[in-house]
Amino acid sequence: MTAPAEPGAGPRADGGSLFEREHLPASSEGRRYRWFRVIFHHDAPDERNFDLALILVILASVAVVLLDSMPSVKVRWHAWLYAAEWLFTLAFAVEYGVRLWVVKRPLRYAFSFFGVIDLLAILPTFLSLLFPATASFTVIRALRLLRVFRVLKLVEYSSEAGVLIQALVRSRRKILVFIAALLTIVVVFGALMYVVEGPDNGFTSIPAGMYWAIVTVGTVGFGDIAPATPFGRFVTSLLIVIGYSIIAVPTGIYTAELARSLQPRRRQARCGSCGLDDHEADAWHCRKCGAVLPREE
Question: Each residue of 158-182: pLDDT tens digit?
Fold first, then answer.
């Protein structure tokens, strides 16, 4: 039997998808619990109003960063935009602190998907005091708009996104092998073109040749470096054909893993007669010998 959830906790803490994690309240009553309901729940009018207000503030803060990057606007309104940016940052910092205050396990929230996004939403502004160029990275707070999925009752869409990411994680070794092979091709062809074409035709070094090989195998062809000799053009044609040949490899690997993820769950009950241990989820008899399958615990 599973242990009952804590009072007022809602779904269990280990529930949720790759993006969505349920968090338990630090208290089941009082002010902390009321703030927990407002921030992490989305059913009552005040809870939904908080979410909608948060989304509007996020949109406004992103608009401020975008406007401040436009020279014509920055010359006239930079002081106001700078003050607004700090106002939004302080508001987000307070909200982040409240989120940590109302949950039972603050570190668990801090290292969750949305917890990391919340932290990244406020860090660039503070870092801009030391590194002014980092102020532009505050646009990352646009990722906080992913919360709209919960507000609009579309959590299942984020769960589907979790399926896509999990399929990518499971196929990572095959993709890494493919990337290693691709990098080997790039190094070999880059060095070859450096020898064949030389600095006179733009191939000033092996890294420059590798850059050309990456652009060519990706069938992009910027044209900033181009072979001039007949043999160099032959190598280029060969590399373009290789690029077209292998461009579908990672797609096929990922698609196969995704198809496996979408297959229905299988029963792992082992047949007591023939020993087969792979059956349909609703199977009661062995598909090989017809014997009755043991019940799953």
Answer: 556 667 777 778 888 888 888 888 8
